[in-house]
């Protein structure tokens, strides 16, 4: 350990050091939120633009914060309430900026009890109207899990990112009718096939295949499902992993409904793993060969 580090630790006992780190994290969060508010003001006058032109990131993984701000400024949302599935510890999520910036209320769900404990110990939990629930979401329990928390009918936004049964969970959803829906899609399935993984109540991406690329549904499958449920597909984020839908009777004219071919975005990230769990950086061809060997359900044939 360097002399400078030793002097620093002597002058800052561990408790004081932890408090200092907490203060710095709080300051950083406030800076993030302030920059997000500046970016968000620009989406209010960005009529007629596509979703990707309005992307910015505050707490979302990619540019979803900006897209959401753009949508809520142009889609008439009566009930400012969101539900998000698959949030981990909620430090990075699609709805966190919506909670702190727009003061929406929300329900977040994750299967890991440690993540839920973290959220409940985060100051955000008492500063805002947020409920956090530990649950493994399935098509059998999703409606009851929501209604037991006093949520039913029309809400503002639903975000589904559970790395597996996303298609089946959205298909089973009856308890709520969100104005805006965000669903993760697996771009590796391409734009021409309407496919999803077969439903398994206990599906886990980490154990389904060591590559970690076998999960979810294609964009076309989600668009067909959205159409059946009364939604218009309005685009994807530029990273190529989240699709956005708006209730057709709430869609303003400036939001153009897109075909799959018009809106499809190939994934711009590499997350394939080898059997040791390390990043493998597989080529698209190698990923396609893996997926071709695994079972899929063609939803157009159901």
Outline:
The protein has helices at 3-11, 14-43, 64-74, 96-102, 113-121, 124-127, 142-147, 166-172, 205-208, 219-228, 260-263, 284-292, and strands spanning 81-85, 105-110, 130-134, 153-160, 176-184, 195-196, 231-236, 242-247, 297-298.
Structural description of this entry:
The protein is α/β, with parallel strands linked by helices. The protein has a single domain, classed as Rossmann fold, CATH 3.40.50. 36% of the residues lie in helices and 16% in strands. The protein contains twelve helices and nine strands. The chain has a seven-stranded mixed beta sheet, with helices on both faces. The chain has a two-stranded antiparallel sheet with strand order 6-9. α2 packs across α3.
Feature tags:
single chain, 302 residues, alpha/beta, Rossmann fold, seven-stranded mixed β-sheet, two-stranded antiparallel sheet
Number of strands: 9
Order of helices and strands: HHHEHEHHEHEHEEHHEEHHE
Indicate the structural class.
alpha/beta
How many structural domains does the protein architecture include?
1
> CATH architecture, please?
3-Layer(aba) Sandwich
Helix content: 25-40%
Q: Class in CATH?
A: Alpha Beta
| Binned strand content | 15-25%
Task: Itemize the secondary structure elements and their pairings.
Blueprint (H helix, E strand, L loop, with lengths): L2 H9 L2 H30 L20 H11 L6 E5 L10 H7 L2 E6 L2 H9 L2 H4 L2 E5 L7 H6 L5 E8 L5 H7 L3 E9 L10 E2 L8 H4 L10 H10 L2 E6 L5 E6 L12 H4 L20 H9 L4 E2 L4
Parallel strand pairs: 1-2, 1-4, 2-3, 4-5
Antiparallel strand pairs: 5-8, 6-9, 7-8
Helix pairs in contact: 2-3
């Amino acid at each position: 350990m360097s002399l400078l580090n030793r002097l620093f630790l002597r002058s800052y006992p561990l408790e004081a050091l932890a408090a200092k780190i907490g203060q710095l994290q709080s300051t950083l969060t406030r800076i993030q939120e302030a920059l997000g508010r500046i970016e968000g003001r620009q989406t209010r006058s960005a009529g007629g633009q596509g979703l990707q032109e309005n992307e910015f990131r505050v707490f979302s993984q990619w540019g979803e914060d900006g897209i959401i701000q753009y949508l809520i400024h142009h889609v008439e949302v009566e009930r400012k309430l969101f539900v998000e599935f698959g949030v981990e510890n909620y430090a990075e999520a699609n709805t966190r900026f919506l909670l702190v910036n727009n003061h929406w209320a929300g329900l977040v769900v994750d299967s890991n009890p440690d993540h839920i404990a973290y959220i409940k110990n985060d100051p955000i939990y008492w500063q805002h109207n947020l409920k956090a629930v530990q649950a493994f979401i399935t098509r059998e329990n999703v409606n009851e899990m929501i209604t037991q928390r006093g949520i039913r009918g029309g809400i503002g936004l639903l975000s589904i990112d559970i790395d597996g049964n996303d298609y089946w969970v959205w298909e089973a959803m009856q308890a709520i009718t969100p104005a805006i829906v965000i669903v993760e899609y697996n771009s590796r399935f391409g734009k021409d096939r309407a496919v999803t993984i077969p439903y398994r109540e206990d599906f886990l991406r980490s154990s389904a295949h060591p590559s970690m690329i076998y999960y979810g549904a294609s964009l076309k499958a989600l668009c067909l499902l959205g159409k059946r449920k009364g939604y218009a597909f309005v685009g994807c984020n530029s990273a190529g992993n989240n699709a956005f839908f708006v209730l057709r009777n709430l869609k303003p004219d400036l939001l153009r409904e897109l075909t799959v071919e018009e809106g499809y975005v190939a994934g711009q990230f590499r997350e394939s793993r080898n059997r040791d769990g390390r990043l493998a950086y597989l080529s698209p061809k190698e990923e396609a060969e893996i997926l071709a060997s695994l079972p899929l359900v063609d939803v157009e044939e159901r």
